[in-house]
Amino acid sequence: MSDLDKRDVSDVDATGTDGHGSHLPAVPEEPIPNPGLPAHTWRPTDVDEGLAKRAERQVSLMFALSAVCTVLFVVSYFIFDIGDDWETVGGLGASTVALGVFLGLALMLIGVGIIQWARKLMADQEMVEMRHPARSSDEDRKATVEALNMGIDESGITKRPLIRRSLLLSIGVLGAPVVVLLRDLGPTPGSVANAEEGTGLQHTLWGTRPRVRVVRDVVGTPIRASDLEIGDLVNAVPDGIFDLEGVELLEAKAKGAVIVVKMAPEEIKSQQGDDWGEEGVLCYSKICTHVGCPISLYERTTHHVLCPCHQSTFDLSDSAKVVFGPAARALPQLPLEVDDEGYLVSQSDFKEPVGPSYWSREKDK
Questions:
Q1: Which of 15, 21, 117, 143 is deepest in the core (most CB within 10 A)?
Q2: Full DSSP string of 227-289
Q3: CB–CB of 260/234 below 8 Å?
């Protein structure tokens, strides 16, 4: 340390020297000189109460129009159906255009109204604030709360009830589209309409009508019980599934796909229901009960079927119970019988949900 550094601070005099004639560097009070602020220019609404009232009515009108657009959004949701032939610019349907335009206008009018409110009616003051540490001091926090309360007072929201009420109205009715759009999440799992259409989580095409024929996947030909030989395993689907297209076909197949297996009757250890098989022919869901992968690997000698995704293994001769892997329950069994022409048909829909279910089995097996 130098001799200068060892000197006591008290040795520094008012002239900026250390008392021995050595000058010390001056410490500035601010990082940069304060340039000051130009003279404040008042807005027309600050000096003319008539213009302020006019601006207040404009802002309130925007909020009110936003509420009207939200109501029109809800009305359009019920008036126009998805896929209407009514065409607009770009080939978009009426439902798409109406919902997009009215919801967009509702949000835009709220935003524009708030901007107009801030530009013309809120307090107009310039402020300069020096940088401070990331964590504010207790004094700064207290000052911030006071400034926030002051800002609320200066915004005029307490003094201008027309703006406050119209803003609350426009924001409040925005909850209506959220509630209405919940309807598009899909039908409820257990409604009668779902059973008739084979939609929802609890129903498949096997339950849409009595005695649905079991047909081969891809080709769609019906299966005779007499045509199957011991050891056969056939991928199958419900009759009528190929009348569907696109997403409906994929959804129906994801729930209704099954495997039909034939084994010697004496090899069947148990079933999930009485008289659910036909001369050693059993039918189980093809959808793994772990995460819904399609099972496909069959070992004829053990009657085990394997899911290729996570190696869950099911014993088809013993109610398709899990013998290995992460699956928590057996594959649902489809009750079968034979019609007058000898073809395999379903007695009913599955008695439990297929795939990874959201509710448990009616009884332990």
A1: 117
A2: G--TT-EEEEEETTGGG--HHHHHHHHHHH-EEEEE--GGG--B-SSTT--BTTEEEEESB-T
A3: yes
Residue position matching structure tokens 């002239």: 15
Largest CA distance in the chain: 123
pLDDT digits 0-9 by tens, 270-288: 888 878 888 889 999 999 9
Which residue would you say has higher pLDDT here, 133 or 111? 111
240: left (phi over 0), alpha (psi -120 to 50) or beta: left
Quick one: average pLDDT of 343-361? 79
Say how far apart CA 183 and CA 286 lie, in whole Å.
Answer: 30
Integer Cα distance of 272 and 282 in angstroms: 10
| Architecture of the 195-346 domain | 3-layer Sandwich (2.102)
Domain chopping of the chain, boundaries: 1-30, 44-125+138-184, 195-346
pLDDT of residue 14: 47
pTM of the model: 0.52
